[in-house]
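Bench log, entry 3. Co-assembly request; chain sequences pasted below exactly as received.
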Amino acid sequence: MTPYPSPTTLQVELDDRSYPITIGQSLLAKDDLFTPYIKGKRVAIVTNDVVAPLYLEPLRQTLLAAGKQVTAIVLPDGEEEKNWSSLMRVFDVLLQEKCDRKTTLVALGGGVIGDLTGFAAATYMRGIPFIQVPTTLLAQVDSSVGGKTGINHPLGKNMIGAFYQPQAVIADTSTLDSLPARELSAGLAEVIKHGAIIDAAFFDWIEDNIAKLVIRDPEALAFAIKRSCEIKADVVRQDEREGGLRAILNFGHTFGHAIEAGLGYGKWLHGEAVGCGMMMAADLSHRLGFIDGNTVQRIAAVVRAAGLPTVAPDLGVERWLELMQVDKKNEGGQIKFILLKPLGTSVVMPVPQDALRATLKACVQA
Ligand code: NAD
Ligand code: GLY
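Structure output for the full assembly:
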């Protein structure tokens, strides 16, 4: 008898860049999940000083036992560290250690480590392979899948980066046991997002199960992770480089990124900003007649029950507008929003200024 249920595997279908997502418990110990995706002998694990004491050693031992030569690169923790100097620290070590282009990078951590390591892999020696080992709920349901990699610029979130797919995503759900409650809530924001934009039945399921998710019921979490990965993988399969459809995955992010940049990276968690941003996008959708007031209330209730903020910081309307101008979706200076039309379906469009200003006034702290 095995102590844990078998892992689930999904496939991100992208022709010769297709890769598996494996979701299950105690996967860091399973060398056979890693070795098919590590062609050379050298591996560099990139992690941070919070995750390293918890999971670096088990993963290093697994890879050493598989005959790999392992280098560890431990960065300072934090969204504010997702920057150029952290990226340079990765390159410094890779070059000092004479890591060649057969080296595989392993991103062990949350979305910050995943995004930064992916970008390092995309650019070191013009591209080396990497594996995502997400250890936050947010990274397991969203950021490790789909190949968006990058770092922040002081003037805008995720403004420097590349589309670059990993060789594999290995999501060990046991690592969520050590995740602080606030971080779990941040991950739930992206789970709610997936239901709201694309799958009304999944949104209903989230509403019914939000209390279980908050207390980390393993079955509920496993389902939420699997369904989120399925939804994201399907969107990425259809539109890898965000020519159109993929933009819907940014529901709540236009407002959320403004909150993150406006308050300073790291003040609110990314998922908290997205949770509040989804509320604001729902309010805006309602003002344009796309959803009814009851739907706005349902979204507010589930965001609140997930432990996320529903009242936005008062940045001042003009500052909000200025911050939202710095967004990769914008074209010709026009801010674009992801709106629900209705719940479970989404549209991407510019909006009338008066409706936007009304949302900004209504949703901020009085
Ligand atoms: P994070 O990477 O900062 O991790 C959150 C915190 O949890 C950190 O302090 C981290 O050290 C800690 N941590 C990680 N795993 C842990 C564990 N198992 N136990 C205890 N502590 C642990 O933040 P995040 O929420 O994972 O990711 C947010 C980032 O992801 C943002 O930069 C966002 O822009 C990015 N993102 C990217 C995509 C994408 O498609 N690439 C999608 C969504 C979000
Ligand atoms: N999280 C947005 C995307 O992956 O496209």
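The chain has a mean pLDDT of 96. The domain at 8-178 is CATH 3.40.50.1970 (Rossmann fold).
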